[in-house]
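Researcher: We plan to redesign the surface later, but first we want a full-length starting point. Tokens attached.
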């Protein structure tokens, strides 16, 4: 498996001398969806700033495409799209079209190609109707989609999303999940996502990390992380409701194991129910 981002025992220092450490290893694999969980202030955004070369790690190892991003981010700038928590700060041009075109214009692409690319991303995101709108007047979900469009228009290899679901209604949340999953499965875009939305993790994750107290406290495939109650509690995280329900069933002595997904959960309950019925019939 190709590691496109690797951070090991990194330390960042803000101008006011705040030290942010992340001991242990964090890797993002090519083509995978990597989710980072952790309480407020656990260093998720700081790591993102390190990955895009905005902050320098003064210790340890940090590489993106095997390159130190602080020294040479410009060499792979086009390969990395980023959407920070507050889309308002990222949307600056007078129209949605201009905003999405910004990076392409900065990169001095021919205007014809810019138009084609922006129209392509607008149609991928079903945003064609918004092209001429003033970004300031868009709804929160629309602004988030425009920011994501601006990050995706260069067809980056990695998309970093910092709290992409903050303040979104359920429908907008689902459409953003569908969108990023579409880019991951159809364009091979590697995703690195931070979120506090525990209920959504199983829909957006191949690998999940937990950051706690300056270290990588846990790493697991898919929903595996939700079975580890101690890890979650130590990191001030809460199991999604599906897993809380299964925990109660297990505590009650119900013969069942934690599921991988809601569908798997439903099947596991049905299977356990049928086993009990059969047991009663036989006895
Ligand atoms: N510009 C800054 N100057 C000084 N300290 C900062 C700055 N930005 C973040 N920090 C500090 O760095 C630490 C890590 O913050 P960071 O934003 O990386 O956390 P986070 O895990 O993304 O949190 P959240 O879930 O709240 O977004 C915190 O203690 C925070 O106070």
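Model: Full-length starting sequence:
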């Amino acid at each position: 498996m190709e590691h496109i981002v690797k951070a090991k025992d990194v330390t960042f220092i803000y101008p006011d001398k705040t030290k942010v450490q992340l001991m242990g290893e964090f890797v993002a694999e090519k083509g995978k969806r990597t989710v980072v969980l952790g309480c407020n202030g656990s260093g998720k955004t700081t790591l993102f700033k390190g990955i895009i070369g905005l902050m320098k790690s003064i210790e340890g190892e940090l590489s993106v495409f095997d390159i130190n991003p602080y020294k040479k981010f410009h060499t792979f700038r086009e390969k990395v799209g980023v959407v920070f928590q507050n889309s308002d700060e990222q949307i600056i041009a007078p129209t949605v079209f201009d905003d999405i075109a910004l990076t392409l214009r900065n990169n001095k692409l021919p205007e014809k190609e810019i138009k084609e690319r922006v129209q392509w991303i607008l149609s991928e995101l079903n945003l064609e109707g918004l092209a001429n709108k003033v970004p300031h007047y868009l709804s929160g979900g629309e602004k988030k989609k425009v920011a994501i469009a601006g990050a995706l228009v260069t067809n980056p290899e990695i998309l970093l999303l910092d709290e992409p679901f903050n303040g979104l209604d359920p429908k907008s949340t689902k459409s953003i999940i569908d969108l990023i999953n579409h880019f991951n499965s159809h364009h091979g875009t590697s995703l690195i996502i931070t979120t506090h939305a525990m209920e959504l993790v199983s829909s957006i994750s191949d690998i999940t990390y937990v950051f706690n107290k300056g270290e990588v406290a846990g790493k697991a495939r898919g929903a595996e992380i939700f079975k580890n109650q101690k890890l979650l509690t130590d990191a001030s995280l809460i199991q999604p409701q599906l897993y809380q329900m299964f925990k109660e069933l297990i505590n009650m002595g119900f013969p069942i194991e934690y599921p991988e997904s809601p569908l798997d959960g439903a099947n596991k309950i049905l299977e356990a129910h049928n086993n009990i019925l059969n047991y009663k019939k036989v006895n």
